[in-house]
Amino acid sequence: MGSLLTQQNIRTLLLITCTVTYMLVGAAVFGALEYDHDQLERKKYLQIYRRLQRDYNISRADMSELAKYLHKKKHVEYALEPWSFAGSVYFTAVTITTIGYGHSVPRTIHGKLFCICYAIIGVPLNLTMFQAIGERMGVLLSYSIKKLKACLGMKNTEVSLVQLVAVGLVLWIVALCAGAALFARYEAWDFFTSLYYFFVTLTTIGFGDLVALQEVNHERTRDKKTMYIALTMCMIYVGLTIASSVINLLVLRLMELQQPKKKRHKLSVQPGPRCNHCQNGKLLKVDTNEDSGIEANQSVMILKNFEDELSFTSYRQLHQKRKSI
User: What pTM was estimated for this model as a whole?
Assistant: First the structure.
């Protein structure tokens, strides 16, 4: 029983409890905000449905066929044909990025089968790419902040994880606003609607209530459709790259906060040969936690490797430094 009540297990249970509580609180808030409006919409469309049946003597089966026709008619008049080459590129992009708007889906058996096989390879490949790019962006941000501090004459040019998260969030907000301005310019949306759409896209939630490139004969997209498609793809991928970097930094920060504060003591400095750390005037600290030698926490290792990489020290130098210790 005592082995089950370790600090790591307790923290995991607390994290699960917080997540479930957060979901329940969110459900209560969304229900309070949206329930009345949804009931009014249901009542309105039910009245329209009954009026059409009464005035035109339309059966339920005919009403279902009419609804399918209107849905297909909207697909026919899309500004971007779903299964043209450009439309297919757009579909593959929202598939492997796990956005999944649902505006166009494969209807044939062969298409559905290929979609399964394609996503099995494409989703992990795409996520790995964004993970790698996000890490590179974290290193670049650290280097840029360090140089900026040096240019401003600051004595301490070290970059903390909190500073990286703050700068990353600022860049993400800038990307969100730039994308919202683009979609507000070319789509029939206001700025807030465009901001909502782009946020849902960059977080890969992809509700599908709003999808770009679907407006019917929009005067701003009709003459510049190719350019707008290219801009849309670029904005989505650039935004996803920044979002991936920010999410990586946030996860690392949360993992850092999750770690318990361990008791440490200083080693006495004895005469004789010293390692690189001692020669630089830095005393090593030894962890006195008994479990630390037995259970290596993976999140600590990831955070340590990431912080070592942010210092722009090569892996060979890191290996030699640890060997010397």
Answer: 0.71
